[in-house]
């Protein structure tokens, strides 16, 4: 009953959080970061998340900003997927 952990956000924020977690806990197995930056279109970002959400039944997604594009995209995908063990948490 392990959850896949996903960090989404603007710019390189998700990579920064993942880097800090590696320093603090040593391993980040089961934790993924998805950046929505100037090199990533909304369509590519959505495709990456769609693939991940379809591969894992249990997912916790942490978004950097409530109402921001990464939060909106992943929230819509989780709702549309109607998967009861996928959650989006945002600040």
What would you give as the CATH superfamily?
Phosphotransferase system, mannose-type IIA component
DSSP strand tally:
4
Mean pLDDT, to the nearest integer, reads 96
CATH architectural arrangement: 3-Layer(aba) Sandwich
CATH class: Alpha Beta
Unreliable runs: none
Shape: globular
Quote the beta fraction: 25-35%
Helix amount: 40-55%
The figure for the number of domains is 1
- Structural class, judged by helices and strands? alpha/beta
What's the CATH topology name?
Rossmann fold
Query: Which sheet architecture does the biggest sheet show?
Result: 4 strands, parallel
| Secondary-structure element series | EHEHEHE
Over all CA atoms, what is the radius of gyration? 12 Å
Give the helix tally. 3
Distance between the termini: 25 Å
- Order of adjacent strands in the largest pleated sheet: 2-1-3-4
Q: Which short descriptors sum up this protein?
A:
globular, 91 residues, four-stranded parallel beta sheet, Rossmann fold, 25% strand, 4 strands, alpha/beta, 44% helix, single chain
What would your notes on this structure say?
With 91 residues, the protein is an alpha/beta fold. The protein has a single domain (4-90), classed as Rossmann fold, CATH 3.40.50.510. It is 44% helix and 25% strand. It has three helices and four strands, in the order E-H-E-H-E-H-E. The chain has helices at 13-25, 42-55, 69-81, and strands at 4-10, 31-36, 59-63, 86-90. A four-stranded parallel β-sheet has the order 2-1-3-4, sandwiched between helices. The protein starts with a strand and ends with a strand. The model has no long low-confidence stretch (mean pLDDT 96).
